[in-house]
Amino acid sequence: MLITGHHRLLADEHHAAAKARRKRIRLNERAIRIRKQMSKSLGLHLNNNSKDERGTIWE
């Protein structure tokens, strides 16, 4: 049975492509989550200046 549409895939081809698409999305979400955690930890490490070290004038 052909799945109607632009590419006209067979049912098993369609399901294999959908499974690969879902896997790719899942891996991308995991990579984005890891990058956000790394940037947060790096930002906390690099931006650990106290207020008197930033060059502000205290009166």
List the helices and strands and how they pair.
Blueprint: H1 11-46
Summarize the structure.
By secondary structure, this protein is mainly alpha-helical. It is built from one helix and no strands.
Write out key terms for the chains shown.
1 helix, mainly alpha, 59 residues
Q: What can you see in these coordinates?
A:
There is one protein chain. This protein is mostly helical and 59 residues long. The protein contains one helix and no strands. The protein starts with 10 loop residues before the first helix and ends in a 13-residue tail after the last helix.
Number of helices: 1
What fraction strand?
under 5%
Q: How far is it from the N-terminal to the C-terminal residue, by CA?
A: 80 Å
Helix content: 55-70%
Q: Report the major sheet.
A: none
Average of per-residue pLDDT values: 79
Order of helices and strands: H
Number of strands: 0
Shape from CA axes? rod-shaped
Q: Uncertain regions: pLDDT < 50 for 5+ in a row?
A: none
Could you say which structural class the secondary elements and strand pairing correspond to?
mainly alpha
Query: For the CA atoms, what is the radius of gyration?
Result: 24 Å
